[in-house]
Amino acid sequence: MITRFDHWIAGMEVSASDYLASHDPATGEPWAEVAAGGEVEVSRAVDCADAVQDEWHRSGPSARAEVLWRLGDLLAANADELAAIESRDVGKVIRETWGQITGLRSWYHYYASLAHQLSGRTIPHDRHSLVVSTSLEPLGVIGVIPAFNSPLLLASMGIAPALAAGNTVVVKPAEVCSGSIVALARLAREAGLPDGCLNVVCGRGAEAGDALAGHPGVAKIIFTGGPESGRAVARRAADRLAPVVLELGGKSANVVFGDVDVEGVVNGVIAGIFAAAGQTCVAGSRLVVHESIADQLVELVAARAQSVRLGNPSDPTTEMGPMAQTTLRDGVEARVASAVAAGAVVRAGGPTGSRPKKGWFYPPTVLDAVDASMEVVRDELFGPVLSVLRFGDEDEAIAIANDTPYGLAAGVWTRDVARAHRVGRALVAGTVWINTYRALAPQVPFGGAKGSGFGRENGLEGLAEVTRSKATWIETDDSPVADPFVWR
Ligand code: NAD
Question: What is the pLDDT of residue 395?
Fold first, then answer.
């Protein structure tokens, strides 16, 4: 039976005249249909969000914190159902979706506690009679446009701080995976969130997403996705001088120095690229490894890649699921084939690697003997493909790692503390992990440098993105105001 996901506007489901099919990537069969909205639904949602925003803000930090706290608990309590929806929509293994969704409890609890921390400052002024203070105010209606790969996590990184600060929200989920975000909105109502504070308009990016980015009632857009749609969103918002946060893609380097315990690093490299079938923005898709240990590390990584269990993501023993979209899988296939034709050597997976016949799978792939001109090295493939690049010294490692238009994340593996600091400083990226990879927490800011975007999510920085500072000057001296044309 096909499951249906409608829009969620003003605290209720709103059906549509048109629906998009959502396919189960493990079978390639449609399993759900998703409302396809546009300008009309977006306008309705923004109007609803705008109508209740002031009241939500005035309800006070305690009330807002209580709702967010309860929502975090409800998400964790409903993790089985939500994880099953996401796993079906995106093809991600159930263990990972479940872990991500139970982890969201911390995101909502963290921002619930920050609802009480929206304080300003009192600023001393040379004129003693003046009291100058600042206060933090919400922006209004925030538009959240997440990418497909971690629907609830990416949406929540916008929703939680926005609601905590007294904004209201309209979310436009990615068209291929809207189900869990509609379910989140329903849970938010159960948590006590007033109707209209969180709305979900489903549909295509170029229709519903474009309408949201261009809507004059939306104060700011928090966007997660690829550079092309990011540019389109930024252009739309620029036309009406609205700010945006752009969380874009990456081509992250995982840099391994010769002083490491080689066997100990293997899992870090594997987790960096093959988790979620490589469909994460921080995928460590370039293994930059010192020539003294390169052969040994590549052999170990390739052996583990070959043993990764591919299969149905709902099976708890499956280690890697399919890719979420055929277009992505086809893009990976084409670029690996072109690299192989140009001389890249397949150490694991690749065009002839084994994978389930049914579904949109691509095997975990390790490509050696690549060079910097190849698409597999330059482009974000958003798939399970690791390219190996060797270096001789520290400067060369840094140069290779930074030789990318992106700057989202990077990993460094070394036992030398001084080197860890030096290299960490030299890498141009929003996040650098030393001797670990792919760690994320609500209290730690996250975002890109260079072509990976701008603005920050998570942490105090994420809250600052959805507030505005207002300065208020109060003259406490009752004397008549001085004549402005008499110079004293
Ligand atoms: P995408 O750019 O195709 O779509 C992202 C979202 O934008 C979707 O909701 C889509 O419907 C919408 N959209 C598309 N065109 C639009 C337009 N013209 N106007 C308004 N909205 C539009 O990206 P995707 O395929 O969903 O996700 C993969 C990309 O997301 C990768 O590049 C990945 O690195 C990136 N990503 C970044 C982060 C991060 O935090 N930096 C996290 C996850 C994914």
Answer: 98
Residue nearest to atom 11 of ligand 1 (CA): 205
Instruction: Report which protein residue has its CA nearest ligand 1's atom 40.
Output: 247
Best residue among 20, 145, 204 to mutate for probing ligand 1's pocket (most ligand atoms within 8 Å of CB) is 145
- Residue 275 carries which DSSP code? G
Distance CA 26, CA 235 (A): 36
Ligand 1 in reach of 154 Cβ (< 6 A): yes
- Per-residue confidence (pLDDT) for residue 1, from 0 to 100: 85
Mean pLDDT of the chain: 97
Q: What distance in Å separates the CA atoms of residue 46 and residue 143, rounded to the nearest whole number? A: 9
Does 158 sit in the ligand 1 pocket, CB within 6 Å?
no
Which of 153, 74, 69, 60 shows the shortest CA–CA distance to 110? 69
Tokens of 346: 């397949």
Kindly report whether the global pTM for this prediction surpasses the value 0.90: yes
Q: Report yes or no: 377 and 286 within 8 Å, Cβ to Cβ.
A: yes
Average pLDDT over residues 422-431: 98
Taking 80 as the threshold, does the pLDDT of residue 332 lie above it?
yes
DSSP 442-471: TTS-B--SGGGEES-BSHHHHHHTTEEEEE
pLDDT of 482 reads 87
How far apart are alpha carbons 355 and 367 in whole angstroms?
A: 17
Q: What does the pLDDT read at residue 389? A: 98
Residues ≥6 apart with Cβ < 8 Å to 65 = 112, 113, 115, 116, 164
Q: Return the ∠ at Cα 430 (arms to 427 and 431), rounded to 5°.
A: 80
Amino acid in position 49: A
What tokens does 444 get? 């730690």
